[in-house]
Amino acid sequence: MLLDIIKNMLIIRYNRFTFEPRQISQLYDWGFLNNSEEKYLFINENIEVILPKLLNYFNKSKVEYTISHSCNLLVEKISVKKDSFDKLLEDGKNFKNGKFDKKDYNNHLEFLNNNISRELKDHQKKASYHLYLVGNGANFSVPGSGKTTVVLSIYEKLRLQNKVNNIFVVGPPSCFGPWKDEFLIVLGRKPNANILAGGNIYQRKSEYYKSDKISELYLTTFQTLLRDQEQVCFFLKNKKINTFLIIDEAHYIKQVNGNWAKAVLKISQYSKFRCVLTGTPIPKSYSDLYNLIDFLWPERNIVNSEEKVKLKILEEKKDYESAGKILKPNIGPLFYRVRKSELGLKPQIFHIPKIIQMNHYERVLYDAVEKKIKKYAKEEFLQNIELVLKLRRGRMIRLRQCLSYAKLLNSAIDYYKEDIFEGNNYLENIIYNYDKLEIPAKINYLTNFIKEFEKTKKKIVIWAYFIGSLKLIEKKITELGFNCKKIIGETPMERDSIKEEETREKIIKEFIDDKSGLDILLANPAACAESISLHKTCSNAIYYDLSYNCAQYLQSLDRIHRVGGSEKKSAHYYFLQYDKSIDSDILDNLKAKAKKMYDIIEVDYSIYSLDMSDETDEISAYERLFLK
User: Structural domains in the chain?
Assistant: First the structure.
């Protein structure tokens, strides 16, 4: 059997007695295709990835083979690359352990001083140098630490060394504005930015074929990349294109074999340099890391299949110490992490919640819902478990709606069809006519709070979970003559126009402008808790209502507590709670989970849940409050 390389194809010449059926199956799994006429198997891409795996497999299986001269040259080239990668790992590990070339580090600092408009913080300088050392690296620093600044500083260094000529960012739409803004602030020039998401699909796809006019900053979403991956590959293969490819909020591609992850991994091999950014690298399983590392080094089998099996077993046993010993030498050198305690920020000040008495009809409806839930909790054992879980979550949402705006009880909830009032005309009439009967007591307190707060001329962001509540708050604040704007709805998908995303950006820019006159921002955590910075001009937030989702809560806290403003001023948080309600349970639960999470994420390889779409929180609360 002969291994050869012809026209960028790895060729295996063999006869029908060479392989056993299981070996043929393995070759097919690796992408080899059979040419039955000439009796050989071939593959036409990823030769450098496949060849070492193939040789290792043949050696272990004691399959006899010879290799051609061209194939032998490639083996030598791969060996040189391996030695280079091993040195890179050693450099990354040594730097994190405080062992590094002081002269080279000082040269890097000099570069930053001479070429970067923004003065980097000490932790950003270290993260920047680490990323430069490893070439393709991850930044797992906490939200608000300045990860974008770090990446842009290295992009500029690579650009001036003629190694890259553009930066291509894949992330949620909410990151587009920050990337454009940070580019100007960090590098001192406005980027020629090209948003490759939404809009006319034919016009957008034509942009990938314009090699004569290259933008310096490209921005796209995971949804768009999934549709445009072939065109993006064509774009990145262009010899005139030398791309620094960034995955922002990279926890979105954590799912092994997920469609977004597959698209990201497909394009990774065609970029010159790569970086992933996320403050939440291991939400639920060590497998959440695999796509991130495979993206950074697609030609390297950094965590092999045998190690993945071991990690899964150790994870099931909760033997995280042993798991860390596997991950540390392989992955540890490739990422940098700045913890919250290292940022040097002023402390967050959480004011004692304001306890408010419900108005008459609010109390009537809340007590009725709570009574029904207690009754149902005793009877639901007759239902199947899947239905029970849906009912429990739906009932908790109904209870939370009472605490936000009772009129919301008339709205539909996806997957939840239960008529909680069972035709009680009195209660149904209260809900239907609620706006004519009273205004929520929280609204009355909030408007008085705003009146007093406006006298201080300080900006404030008001967080509320339910869209209907935000619209009511906007109406009441506007009636007082105050200028306020809202950001609501789910993060825009591709079906939404980019015009909507730009509108969101304009609202945020107006709000953070201290001379704009817009001092009140209304926001929904699902739409505004990620990739948004408000801290430069706003240090105050009031929570009109809350959900049990700790991820969204922590993200919202960080909007006004970040590097670049919070070093000199504390962030203040205010909470509205109804007396004798689950409001206090929600906040207490969030605080407990937040403390636990902050303690856990100080460790590099701990598993912790910080999933923005986690739907188990209400169910857990239901079981805690009504089943024990």
Answer: 2-76 (no CATH), 101-298 (3.40.50.10810), 348-354+439-626 (3.40.50.300), 358-437 (no CATH)
Give the position of tokens 């504390």: 570
Q: Count the neighbouring beta carbons within 10 Å of the beta carbon of residue 516.
A: 13
Give the pLDDT score at 386: 77
Q: Hunting for tokens 């080899």 — which residue is that?
A: 32
- DSSP states along 577-598: EETTSTHHHHHHHHHHHHHHHH
Written as six digits, the tokens of 63 are: 């399959």
Contact 571, 541 (CB under 8 A): yes
Instruction: Please state, in angstroms and rounded to a whole number, the distance separating the CA atoms of residues 622 and 628.
Output: 10
Q: CA 289, CA 608: separation in Å to the nearest integer? A: 13
pLDDT of residue 490: 47
Please enumerate in sequence order all residues whose Cβ is within 8 A of that of 366, keeping only pairs 6 or more positions apart, or say none: 358, 399, 402, 403, 406, 578, 581
Sign of the CA dihedral running 318, 320, 322, 326: positive
pTM of the model: 0.79
Note the helical H segments in 97-190: 102-115, 122-134, 147-160, 176-187
Question: Contact at 8 Å (CB) between 424 and 457?
Answer: no
CA proximity to 575, closest of 413, 391, 356, 410: 356
Each residue of 391-415: b (16+ CB within 10 Å) or e? Answer: bbbbbbbbbbbbbbbbbbbeeeeee
Here the tokens at position 492 are 């825009």
Amino acid letter, 13: R
For residues 302 and 306, give the distance between their C-alpha atoms in angstroms, rounded to a whole number. 11
DSSP 524-566: -HHHHSSS---TTTEEEEEES---S-HHHHHHHHHTTS-TTTT
pLDDT averages per 10-residue partition of the chain, 628 residues: 84 78 83 71 71 87 89 90 92 94 96 96 96 95 90 98 97 90 96 89 90 91 94 94 96 87 94 92 77 90 87 87 88 90 91 97 95 80 73 90 95 82 89 96 96 91 95 96 84 42 77 91 82 88 94 88 89 97 94 78 62 64 81
Phi, then psi, of 356 in degrees rounded to 5: -120, 140
* pLDDT (0 to 100) of residue 383: 65
Contact 128, 120 (CB under 8 A): yes
pLDDT reported for residue 321 = 84
The token pair that represents 476 in the structure block: 């009441």
